[in-house]
Amino acid sequence: MDIQKERYFDINNTLMKKILLLILTLNTFLLINAQTAEEVITKVRAKLDKVNDYEAKGKMKTNVIFIKAPVANVKVYYKKPNKLRINNESGISFIPRGSVNINLSNIFVNTAGFDMIDIGKENKTNLRIIKLLPKDENSEMVLSTLYIDEAGSLIKKAKTTTKENGTYELEMSYGKYAEYGLADKVIFTFNTKDYKLPKGITFDYDDGSKKEQSPDKLKDKKGKVEISYSSYIINKGVSDAVFK
Questions:
Q1: Using CA atoms, how far apart are residues 165 and 162, in angstroms rounded to an integer?
Q2: CA 228 – CA 233 distance, rounded (Å)
Q3: Tell me: the pLDDT tens digits for 174-230?
Q4: In angstroms, rounded to a whole number, what is the distance separating the alpha carbons of residues 23 and 16?
Q5: DSSP string of the chain, one letter each residue
């Protein structure tokens, strides 16, 4: 009986040692392979830097309380470092100025101008959260929070606070153009109360119940613009004349 007990304890001790060794090895592996915020951002930027220019086709859906706009076919043009133009066949194009970041690469025009704060990973999605704070106090951007898929080096969500146009969010989903960091679908969300309409521009107000609403009643309303891309022509050259 004593011999059986000794064998039992020996087997269990050996098993425990193997389990502990496995845990230590795994922890060491994770620590060694953990990326710093700078490394994560560098890989994301490297992917976006593959794109010098593009011409994309897609459909744009505008969901803003004071604009009646149908789903429209659009062409989107981009050229480094930060040129962006959206041509809408319907003639109605409501894209807040801050949405130039819809191409994402605009955020990384000069990462040396930002301090990076590593927040860690989001529990539900396991996305890496990194905040960018501009060093230049005169920067239009106050803060940008990026939610990054580390494995794919893809920004899945970006939340940016600006001085002039409040806070807006971008959500991206990816498909066949993921290797270039280009999304199949972009959802742009912003607060209508923070957006300043250009001078001389007016729209019919429509909240589904009354044809006209006072701008003061638009507070705390969300505006949303969705672009679903069907195709991209990448790095084939885009004339500067397109952006004039």
A1: 6
A2: 15
A3: 999 999 999 999 998 887 765 555 444 444 434 444 444 555 555 457 788 899 999
A4: 11
A5: -HHHHHHHHHHHHHHHHHHHHHHHHHHHHHHHHPPPHHHHHHHHHHHHTT-SEEEEEEEEEEE-TT-----EEEEEEEETTTEEEEEETTS-----GGGGGGGSGGGGTTGGGEEEEEEEE-TTT--EEEEEEES-TT-SEEEEEEEEETTTTEEEEEEEEESSS-EEEEEEE-STTGGGT--SEEEEEEEGGGPPPPTT-------SS-S---GGGGTT-EEEEEEEEEEEEESS---GGGG-
